[in-house]
Amino acid sequence: MLRVGLTGSIAVGKSFVADTLLELGCHVLDADETAREVVAPGSEGLKRIFGEFGSDVIREDGTLDRGKLGAIVFGDEEKRLKLNSILHPLVIAAQDEQLRRWEVKDPHGIAVVDAALMIESGGYKRFDKMIVVHCRPEVQLQRLTTRNNLTPEEARRRIAAQMPQEEKMRYADFLIDTSEGFEDAKLQTEKVFERLLELSENFSRKSL
């Protein structure tokens, strides 16, 4: 199975690319979904977060209050890194387990893991190929202010807290620029998918 990492900064259209790849026939795993699973009530992840950040981030029903936790770690680099050190190994382990299950069912398929912090966490090293989604800075800013109902200054702070787009792009085997909208991004994604199919076929032949 060809393993592909999909990443990109906030509000660049990464989810649209992931949805398109799913429609084209790839197996797609959303890291955000996995991150929610590893902090479910009773999980090891939630226990570790409780131990580090206290009961204030746990709701009465035993679920994680992601809003409160986000408010604590946003703007505090030390706490953000601590949270990542708790979550990233758990998320990667859960992803790898899903990839193994897919490989058993579809050994010649294409598996895509969609994760915003794939490069920062070092998780990108587990993949055969990397897709980085990006767009022009002014487009990113406009999308973020509109989507999250933020002021331009708030949006700029969120963007600045992440790895710069230019740096992420250096890790790419394939780049998809969503600046010109969905239709253009879809065409680019389809071309990347065609190339992944070729790579998957070659990859399968080598493993025979």
What does this structure look like?
- The chain is of the alpha/beta class.
- The protein has one domain (2-207): P-loop containing nucleotide triphosphate hydrolases (Rossmann fold, 3-Layer(aba) Sandwich).
- It is 58% helix and 12% strand.
- The protein is built from ten helices and five strands.
- Strands 2-3-1-4-5 form a five-stranded parallel β-sheet, with helices on both faces.
- Helix 3 runs antiparallel to helix 5 (77-105) and helix 7 crosses helix 8 (152-160).
- The longest helix has 29 residues, at 77-105.
- The radius of gyration is 18 Å and the shape is globular.
- The termini are close together.
Count of extended strands: 5
List the total number of helices: 10
| Beta-strand percentage range | 5-15%
Q: Give the helices and strands as they follow along the chain.
A: EHEHHHHEHEHHHEH
Distance from N terminus to C terminus (CA atoms, Å) equals 12 Å
The computed structural class is alpha/beta
Radius of gyration: 18 Å
Largest sheet: 5 strands, parallel
Percentage of residues in helical conformation: 55-70%
CATH domain fold name: Rossmann fold
Using the alpha-carbon principal axes, give the shape: globular
From the coordinates shown, what is the CATH architecture? 3-Layer(aba) Sandwich
Number of domains: 1
Spans with pLDDT under 50 lasting ≥5 residues? Answer: none
The CATH H-level superfamily is P-loop containing nucleotide triphosphate hydrolases
CATH class: Alpha Beta
Placed side by side, the strands forming the largest sheet appear as: 2-3-1-4-5
Q: What do the pLDDT scores average to?
A: 93
